[in-house]
Each structure stands twice: as structure tokens, then as C-alpha cells.
């Protein structure tokens, strides 16, 4: 449907009182789904096609807002984790857990930068020397994330030493 205007009437019933949603990316489709499930007629219109914008480029990680922790945006993390819980419940055939490893090179890295960002001192944060996030910062973030997740189906984070069973191969001189 490239270049054409496509229109999807989610209820197949033209109705003057329909909610008109412009944009059939993930947000438009999710809003349409919620409205239809609640019995509200919807017309979903896209200048291009369903999921042709940013939604077609997404890595599709349901990350639960981990990176917003560093900005102190706890409400957004809580909301993102609630969305993750909903997706795991509503679409277990599409959403599955994957194990991700965060390589850590040092213990203290990034603490001052993160503290400055957390305190909304972005200019100070940009002046501080850039270092990768260290053990203490990553563990604090993941500990908070696990607390917010409150999801018994998702295991809490775990610390691996390099070379340990089930951990990926990494440069032993760089990661301990
Ligand atoms: C490389 C990359 C990787 C990403 N990875 C992740 C990830 O792993 N996890 C994650 O959560 N997020 C990820 N994101 C972010 C995520 O893809 C976006 O936040 C999300 O797709 C935005 O969805 P949207 O519906 O708001 O916008 P879009 O998907 O861009 O949808 C907007 C739609 O509106 C249409 N449109 C525009 N103007 C009009 C108009 N006037 N009338 C009608 N229709 C119109 C467009 O054609 C488009 O289809 C990633 C983004 C990128 C670029």
C-alpha cells in the first residue's frame, strides 16, 4: 500500500461517532485495541501503512523502561513494567523472556554522572569524564528495577563473574 492512504475500520461498521485515530504505529494500534475491547467504534487511518514508521524499526525489546531509572523517572518505569506484565499476560505467544548480559568493567564507573543526571544537573553531568557504568551503579539500578517489576514470572537480575558457567565469553583482562 506504499504511497497510498490506507484506512482500517476496526469494527467494520462506519459510524459517525467513531473515534478517529491518526497513525497506525504501535501506539495508534494499541489505543485502537483498547477502545475496541471496550466497545468503542474506531477508525484507524495511516498516511502510509500499519507499522510503517518507527514501529517497523523497533528491536522489539519490552525493556520495561530500565534506562529511565537513571533520570529518576520512576513513574515511567513503573508504567513500562506494568505494560510488560500486561503483554506477558495478553500475548504470551508473541512475548517471551530473553536473557541479556550487561558487561561491567569497573566498580565505581558512572556514579557521579548518574547522580548529576538524577539531580537534573545535566550541564555538570556533561562536564564529568565519561566512564562506562560500573558494578555499584548497575546493581543499584537493577535492584530498583526488580523491586518495581513485582513480577514473579520474571526472574530477578543475577551477577556472573567472567568465565562462570552459563555466562558469555568475554575478554578476561577487561571484564572480571
Ligand atoms: C532503531 C529503533 C529501535 C527501537 N527499539 C525499541 C525497542 O527495542 N523497544 C521499544 O520499546 N522501543 C523501541 N524503539 C522505539 C519504538 O519503535 C517507538 O517508540 C514506537 O515505535 C513509536 O510508535 P508510534 O506508534 O508512536 O510511532 P510510529 O510507529 O512512527 O507510527 C506513527 C504512524 O503515524 C503515521 N502518520 C504520521 N503522520 C500521520 C498523519 N498526519 N495522518 C495519519 N497517519 C500519520 C505514520 O505513517 C506512522 O505509521 C525503537 C526505535 C528505533 C528507531
Topology:
Elements: E1 6-9, E2 19-22, H1 26-37, E3 42-46, H2 74-90, H3 111-118, H4 122-127, H5 135-149
Parallel strand pairs: 2-3
Antiparallel strand pairs: 1-3
The structure holds flavin-adenine dinucleotide.
Flavin-adenine dinucleotide is lined by residues 22-28, 45-48, 52-55, 57-61, 63.
Structure report:
There is one protein chain. This protein has 176 residues and is mainly α. It has two domains: 6-56, no CATH class; 66-149, no CATH class. Helix content is 33%, strand content 7%. It has five helices and three strands; from the N terminus they run ββαβαααα. Strands 1-3-2 form a three-stranded mixed beta sheet, with helices on one face. The longest helix is centred in the middle third of the chain and has 17 residues, at 74-90. Flavin-adenine dinucleotide binds at residues 22-28, 45-48, 52-55, 57-61, 63.
Amino acid at each position: 500500500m506504499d504511497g497510498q492512504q490506507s484506512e482500517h475500520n476496526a469494527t467494520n461498521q462506519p459510524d459517525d461517532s467513531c473515534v478517529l485515530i491518526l497513525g497506525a504505529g504501535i501506539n495508534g494500534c494499541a489505543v485502537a485495541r483498547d477502545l475496541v475491547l471496550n466497545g468503542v467504534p474506531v477508525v484507524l487511518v495511516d498516511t502510509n501503512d500499519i507499522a510503517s514508521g518507527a514501529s517497523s524499526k523497533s528491536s522489539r525489546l519490552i525493556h520495561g523502561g530500565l534506562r529511565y531509572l537513571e533520570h529518576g523517572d520512576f513513574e515511567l518505569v513503573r508504567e513500562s513494567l506494568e505494560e510488560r506484565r500486561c503483554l506477558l499476560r495478553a500475548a504470551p505467544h508473541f512475548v517471551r523472556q530473553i536473557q541479556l548480559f550487561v558487561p561491567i568493567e569497573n566498580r565505581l564507573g558512572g556514579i557521579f554522572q548518574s547522580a548529576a543526571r538524577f539531580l537534573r544537573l545535566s550541564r555538570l553531568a556533561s562536564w564529568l569524564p565519561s566512564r562506562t557504568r560500573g558494578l555499584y551503579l548497575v546493581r543499584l539500578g537493577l535492584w530498583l528495577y526488580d523491586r518495581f517489576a513485582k513480577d514473579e514470572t520474571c526472574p530477578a537480575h543475577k551477577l556472573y563473574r567472567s568465565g562462570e558457567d552459563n555466562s558469555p565469553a568475554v575478554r578476561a583482562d577487561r571484564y572480571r
